[in-house]
Amino acid sequence: NAFEDREGDIWVATRGGLDRFRPGNLVPGPFPYGSGGEDLALVAARDGSIWAGNLGQPLMRAEGDAVSFLGENRDITCAYRDTDGSLWFAGNNTLLHAVNGTTESVPLPPETDPRLRWAIQSIVRSPDGGLWISVAENGVFRLQNHVWTQWGGVAALPRRTAVILWTDSSGTIWFGYTVNEVASLRGTTVRDYTAADGVNIGT
């Protein structure tokens, strides 16, 4: 016996048991990969569209199955939706801010050498309005009032480059590092967690 319920699921009863079949919520994405098959940096806009970037392709915007390509080729490694709904895209020596469909380039910290094309690995907004980025081999920086400050001016932060940044619902900023280390920043208070505290996130 088989029947369809009001949610669209199909139920089939056999001698082996009862099986339910339902449509999958995951569908293949419409974005093409770059020539090297690099991973995509993805972010959802407030209007429901999905934006993507990777190495060697323009920014891409998908609405349904339709994909539009925006501007010149970029080297994008991360993307972030800001608290005001605007979008940030960053990568090798690149930081872009997209507001209402208009994208502008933001100057990088002067401590980073543009000739070396360092990758920006993560972006996050802090409760005080500062924008934090992590730059490979250069550390973390905070942009406040158009001025970049390495380590955010926080003396207690680890002098290492975080590979991931995140702000939780309480306003605490979290910094994730390699070799089993995580740090948190709440206001001006820093807490550092290592393998001695049970952190086991690999190398």
Shape estimate: globular
Q: For the residues shown, what is the average pLDDT? A: 90
**Number of beta-strand segments:** 18
What is the count of DSSP helices, taking H or I runs of 4+ residues?
A: 0
Radius of gyration: 21 Å
Helix percentage: under 10%
Distance between the termini: 53 Å
In the sheet with the most strands, the strands line up as 4-5-6-7-8-9-10
Structural class: mainly beta
% residues in beta strands: over 45%
- Uncertain regions spanning at least 5 consecutive residues: none
User: Could you give a short account of the major beta sheet?
Assistant: 7 strands, antiparallel
What's a quick, concise take on this entry?
The chain is mainly beta.
Structure notes:
This protein is mostly beta strands. The protein is built from no helices and 18 strands. The strands form 4 sheets. Strands 4-5-6-7-8-9-10 form a 7-stranded antiparallel beta sheet, with no helix packed on it. β13 (139-144) and β14 form a beta hairpin. The chain is globular and about 70 Å long. The mean pLDDT is 90.
Give me some keywords for this one.
single chain, 203 residues, mainly beta, seven-stranded antiparallel sheet, four-stranded antiparallel sheet, 18 strands, 50% strand, globular
Explain the layout of strands and helices.
Layout: E1 2-4, E2 10-14, E3 17-21, E4 41-44, E5 50-53, E6 55-63, E7 66-81, E8 87-91, E9 94-99, E10 102-105, E11 120-125, E12 131-135, E13 139-144, E14 147-150, E15 164-167, E16 173-177, E17 181-186, E18 189-193
Antiparallel strand pairs: 1-2, 2-3, 4-5, 5-6, 6-7, 7-8, 8-9, 9-10, 11-12, 12-13, 13-14, 15-16, 16-17, 17-18
